[in-house]
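Section 5.1 Outputs to date
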Amino acid sequence: MPGSVYAARPITIGRPLWRVDVLQDANAAPNTFDHTHHHPSVVVWEPGSRTFVEELSDDPLPWLADKFTNISSLLKEAGIAPDEISGADADGLHGAAPEIMETVRRMLERVWTGELGQPKDDMDSGTVTSMRASWL
């Protein structure tokens, strides 16, 4: 890398392994999670098929925590050989799981209070044109 020891270094993501969409109908009560699903595999940055799991829809936080702390199970489900991921990366994800889960919990609370995840109004007509808003 060029530059001194004080120079900024790029941080990159090599590839996603898995994706979770914690979603619910816009008109549903908080904690509904009726559209929550995951994509067990991602190929060339494209998510695979949606997979709906009852435990994920019932209460996503414990389900997510289990995935983050059981890395070998997550890799197996994603079709990734354990040796494709460094031990340091697996340990890092396992160690970061509590912080990740706390962040997800806080973000969901902000959605439920109406601060985040609100539909965008069409600038001209004042009608809702899209409910898809990224917040995590």
